[in-house]
Amino acid sequence: MYLNTPPRSTIRFTRRGKLVLVVTGAVVAGTAVAVPLLSPGGADRKPISLVIPEGWRASQVYEAIDKALALPAGSTAKSIGKARLKLPSDAAGNPEGYLFPATYHVDKDATPQTLLQQMVDTANDRFDVAPVAAGAQRSPMNLYQAITVASIVQAESASRTDMGKVARVVLNRLARGIPLQMDSTLNYGLRRHAARTSLEDTRIDNPYNSYQRVGLPPTPIDSPGADAMRATLNPTPGDWLYFVTVKPGDTRFTTDYEEHQRNVAEFNALQQKNKKAQRSPSATASPSGASQSPSGVAQSRL
């Protein structure tokens, strides 16, 4: 399997989480595991919680920590070298993929380093649990590679129910030495959150351009959640090589390129229809997921 070479892209439409600072006891929406931590202020200040959603990039986490601690922008990113994070050697000091999505309680003594350490320690604890460890042992990938795949699955899946199939598509393409051709990796390399990828974009020379490079990207592209990790280690059986979310709730997986192209054509037709509706004076709202682009595997024939 082509697992170590620089890969191509895949950040197709990562849903951007929203920073949430809530007083302890408030209801927090989202997938988060409560992890003890209080807020900057004084002894009488109420504890607050910092929610890190699944699928956030490290850059988003850094920004959230800066805001939570009322620090100048860029402070957390500059503190990485001092944080003494327990990362695998494959990570080369980059915590991407290891800032585990959870709810962190921020106390008055919290610093960027302590928050980052807790996030990485939480990731290591979660990844060391028996089901994950057993799955990693059965897989031809090492744990860091599995986390990288899980980050792609997290970014590319329209829903949790799709994750097992998306993971299977990624693994099938890796096994065949086929470029992943996913927008999410390319967008990560370009430091953007674009909904659509142009033909010109796919030709950009970038280590995360999975249209041009075979294998996995150099690093994870976000912080995957437990569901994405489970899907990666226990993918749905199948021989699919392509998928596209034609509309919300309708993600189509196939092994046949011609069928996939028909699905992509249907997706594009719906996009055009939605654009016309949005331009119409009578349009009241854009449809949910209208900006979602098809997976990059739509772009080229095998």
UniProtKB/TrEMBL annotation:
UniProt source species: Streptomyces shenzhenensis
Gene assigned in the entry: mltG
EC number(s) reported in the record: 4.2.2.29
The name this protein goes by in its record: Endolytic murein transglycosylase
Biased composition (Low complexity): 280-302
GO molecular function: lytic endotransglycosylase activity
Pfam families tied to this protein: YceG
Family: Belongs to the transglycosylase MltG family.
UniProt-annotated site: Important for catalytic activity, residues: E156
